[in-house]
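TICKET: design request
STATUS: open
ATTACHED STRUCTURE:
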């Protein structure tokens, strides 16, 4: 009896054993670098060693050096991109889930194909379109004698880049969320006298909310940390926080400053994700109930 109890104590759970490789990978590839970034954020400026006296100097300098402006622009542009993406993608997602039928696969393929090309190459394609005397400006001058030379290197061009690049990350979660709405509930609401607008507002939109929330979280977090869109399409119109982080780690050679900005960006993203995921029923989405 005692021997059996002892052997059960030392028996390794197969699930825990299978999780060891993934746990080691996350520890080395994620937790370790993250801990180093957090450690560097408390080091004196322009130091490259963790063997220094920690201080809060870098966190104070974020306000003193006006880095909050970059945070504001990043939040504003990311929020704007999420709103526009929702308005653009919801009708497309509804059509793919409920209307297009077999044509939905073709639409999906057309949306996925651009992802096979580098993001920077696609953005430089937009530069050729929006550039002065470029494709759009030259075509408008030739056809209507109207100039569109001031579109590039502006805030709207950055938003255009964010919407274009991150459209699939909003679209496909929306398709999944809309597909979760049972047709029987819509028919029941219609039988009870609800109008088409009331069915959408009271039935379809609330029940598709998990897809909306996941798409919004994905596009917001990706847009918040985006770099190429602002640099390629925006020029010096605005500076997003990812640009400041890159400059601190490279040109300025100030790892502690880059680390504190990274920690604050990670913290901001984490708070947003935590607050929004509290409103999502993941068990329902993955089919557990």
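STATUS: resolved
RESOLUTION: sequence designed for all positions
ATTACHED SEQUENCE:
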């Amino acid at each position: 009896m005692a021997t059996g109890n002892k052997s059960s104590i030392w028996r390794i759970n197969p699930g825990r054993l299978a999780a060891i490789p993934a746990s080691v990978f996350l520890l080395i590839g994620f937790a370790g670098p993250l801990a180093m970034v957090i450690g560097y954020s408390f080091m004196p400026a322009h130091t490259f060693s963790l063997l220094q006296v920690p201080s809060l100097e870098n966190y104070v300098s974020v306000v003193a050096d006006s880095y909050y402006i970059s945070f504001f622009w990043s939040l504003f542009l990311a929020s704007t991109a999420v709103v526009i993406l929702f308005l653009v993608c919801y009708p497309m997602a509804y059509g793919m889930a409920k209307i297009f039928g077999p044509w939905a696969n073709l639409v999906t393929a057309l949306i996925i194909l651009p992802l096979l090309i580098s993001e920077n190459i696609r953005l430089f394609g937009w530069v050729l379109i929006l550039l002065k005397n470029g494709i759009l400006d030259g075509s408008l001058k030739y056809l209507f004698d109207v100039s569109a030379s001031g579109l590039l290197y502006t805030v709207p061009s950055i938003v255009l880049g964010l919407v274009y690049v991150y459209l699939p990350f909003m679209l496909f979660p929306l398709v999944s969320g809309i597909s979760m709405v049972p047709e029987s509930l819509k028919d029941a609401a219609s039988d009870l006298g609800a109008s088409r607008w009331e069915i959408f507002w009271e039935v379809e939109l609330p029940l598709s909310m998990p897809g909306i929330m996941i798409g919004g979280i994905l596009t917001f977090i990706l847009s918040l940390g985006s770099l190429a869109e602002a640099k390629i399409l925006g020029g010096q119109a605005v500076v997003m926080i990812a640009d400041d982080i890159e400059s601190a780690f490279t040109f300025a050679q100030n790892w502690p400053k880059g680390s504190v900005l990274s920690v604050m960006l990670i913290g901001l993203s984490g708070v947003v994700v935590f607050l929004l995921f509290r409103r999502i029923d993941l068990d329902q989405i993955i089919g557990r109930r």
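CLOSING REMARK: The longest helix spans residues 68-99. The CA atoms of residues 112 and 168 lie 7 Å apart.
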